[in-house]
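Hi R.,

As promised on Friday, here is the backbone we talked about, encoded as structure tokens. Could you run it through your design pipeline when you get a chance and send me back a sequence?
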């Protein structure tokens, strides 16, 4: 019996995966593979690397973000036409099971651990059901990810050390998908898994690496120390909240074990905008704490990738530009600047639906636009056209080469780390690619593929900093790459 595992990718929105460094292994399918008995032959296809073409199988399993689901349905249609059964799980299937069921034979909601074995047993017995609810799994029952399926040249290994989040922010589906309590894997088990990883880069995909449970900081420290004592040498990244900076020992050991950058939900710089999206975590710390926190993290050589949201209910055009100015001024090193989007299953989605404010509502076709770069809802103070065109200007001003260079040199100054400065710079390029997908060609003053202004001659600043970068390269780059790949 052959099981085909597929990660579909939206054909219209490929900006984020143009660069190899932003093609990530779908960890969920590695878990599905691990839960599948050995008598099944497995084949995995990731559309971030190759366009899918039909290939024979006995069962086809799909995963999918909302923005990719239309493509999942196209692939499922090929197989249904050929009479081959299809099953889909993951975030979109969990939030919209009724819709998904019209396109595939079986839907699995929630975590695969609680449903996949039962589904496969029914399938093998010739009696597969239409819907299986995996719910929330006992964290000790999570199997080791089958990493042998990831045959593509991903740059990062992905590892998850915990699941869940109690915060339930308005725009986020994590609490609905992963539950309200943090479930933590045992440190020894994580270290064993880390020893199986092969890539020099590592991304801990936890939503909050240092959660608010008692002992979370000690757990993190023992993980980082364990990485060092077992000789697990990685350059790593993770998501965390503002409390990441609370404990100097955490920061010290994080850096020592290879932490390069922390991805953090900053969202906004004013209490009003934060309370619009119920970002209570940041409200409780206060927006005045941001810079102190960033400085503390920087002192350990670690960079900050700030997630920022534009288009809160109270936002007027001037507020969007004020947020842009805050990003330029504050010391976040890399920035993801998205438009508030009502992802299905979130509190925001339900509220917007009840208020009849969703304008991208021709489902499933419109799901393709739910990648946080489009105005999907109406706003009290701006029209969708106004917010989109303001965002185009904001993206152009933040992700052109001069702006990104300025940030890079500031990162270098703040962290004293070339590696951190380089990754922050590279991440900004990656986000630039994602945001410019719609606009760089059409905008009269847009930027070219090198992120430089199309109709302006190269600035003296760029010419000068090119030389500086070249010098840095000569002195330290090769040494660093060698150390990284040793
Ligand atoms: C890591 C991560 C990323 C990474 C890597 C993504 C990747 N390819 O893996 C990066 C940083 C690139 C990323 C980017 C984005 N992300 Co993201 N990301 C996550 C995060 C934090 C963890 C995902 C993960 O690996 N989990 C661990 C695995 C094991 O869990 P899992 O995939 O859910 O799989 C389990 C179940 O879902 C199920 N399952 C999954 N697939 C299947 C298939 C079958 C057949 C079955 C039976 C079961 C099953 O079983 C698995 C095991 O229990 C989630 C939040 C979260 N906690 O889920 C957000 C999340 C998935 N991201 C989200 C979003 C919106 C984005 C962005 C669009 C944001 C943006 N604008 O930048 C981009 C999209 C970029 C792109 N074009 O791909 C949303 C998706 C919401 C939605 N409805 O689509 C989430 C849920 C966060 C949120 N805000 O709500 N993301
Ligand atoms: S945004 Fe972060 S803190 Fe808020 S619910 Fe999602 S994962 Fe939790």
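Update: got your reply. Pasting your designed sequence below so it's all in one thread:
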């Amino acid at each position: 019996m052959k099981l085909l595992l597929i990660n579909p990718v939206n054909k219209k929105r490929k900006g984020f995966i143009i660069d190899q460094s932003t093609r990530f292994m779908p960890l969920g399918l590695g878990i599905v593979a691990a839960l599948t008995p050995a008598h099944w032959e497995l084949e995995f296809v990731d559309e971030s690397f190759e366009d899918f073409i039909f290939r024979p199988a006995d069962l086809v399993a799909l995963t999918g973000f909302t923005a990719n689901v239309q493509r999942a349905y196209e692939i499922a249609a090929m197989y249904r036409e050929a009479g081959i059964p299809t099953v889909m799980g993951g975030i979109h299937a969990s939030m919209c099971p009724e819709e998904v069921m019209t396109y595939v034979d079986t839907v699995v909601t929630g975590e695969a651990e609680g449903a996949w074995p039962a589904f496969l047993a029914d399938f093998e017995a010739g009696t597969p059901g239409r819907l299986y609810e995996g719910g929330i799994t006992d964290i000790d029952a999570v199997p080791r990810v089958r990493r042998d399926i990831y045959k593509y040249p991903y740059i990062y290994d992905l590892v998850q050390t915990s699941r869940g989040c109690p915060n339930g922010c308005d725009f986020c589906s994590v609490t609905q998908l992963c539950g309200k309590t943090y479930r933590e894997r045992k440190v020894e088990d994580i270290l064993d898994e880390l020893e199986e990883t092969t890539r020099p880069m590592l991304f801990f995909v936890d939503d909050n690496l240092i959660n608010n449970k008692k002992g979370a900081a000690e757990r993190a420290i023992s993980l980082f120390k364990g990485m060092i004592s077992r000789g697990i040498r990685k350059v790593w990244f993770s998501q965390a909240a503002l409390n990441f900076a609370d404990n100097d020992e955490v920061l010290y050991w994080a850096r020592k074990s290879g932490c390069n950058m922390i991805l953090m939900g900053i969202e906004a710089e004013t209490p009003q905008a934060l309370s619009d999206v119920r970002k209570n975590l940041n409200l409780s710390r206060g927006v005045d704490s941001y810079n102190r926190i960033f400085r503390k993290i920087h002192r350990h050589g670690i960079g900050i990738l700030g997630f920022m949201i534009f288009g809160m209910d109270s936002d007027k055009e001037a507020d969007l530009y004020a947020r842009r100015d805050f990003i330029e001024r504050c010391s976040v090193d890399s920035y993801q600047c998205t438009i508030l989007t009502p992802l299905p299953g979130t509190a925001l989605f339900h509220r917007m639906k009840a208020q009849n404010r969703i304008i991208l509502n021709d489902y499933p076709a419109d799901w393709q636009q739910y990648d946080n770069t489009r105005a999907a809802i109406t706003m009290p103070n701006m029209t969708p056209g106004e917010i989109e065109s303001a965002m185009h200007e904001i993206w152009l001003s933040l992700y052109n080469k001069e702006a990104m260079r300025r940030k890079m040199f500031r990162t270098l100054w703040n962290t004293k780390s070339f590696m951190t400065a380089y990754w922050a710079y590279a991440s900004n390029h990656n986000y630039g690619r994602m945001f410019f997908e719609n606009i760089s060609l059409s905008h009269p003053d847009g930027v070219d593929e090198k992120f430089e202004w199309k109709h302006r001659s190269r600035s003296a600043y760029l010419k000068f900093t090119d030389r500086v970068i070249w010098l840095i390269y000569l002195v330290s780059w090769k040494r660093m790459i060698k150390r990284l790949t040793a």
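One thing I noticed while checking it: The pocket of cobalamin (ligand 1) is lined by residues 16, 24, 26-29, 31-32, 61, 63, 65-67, 87-92, 95, 108, 111-113, 116, 158, 160, 172-174, 177-178, 205, 207, 336, 338, 343-344, 371-372 (CB under 6 Å).

Thanks again,
M.
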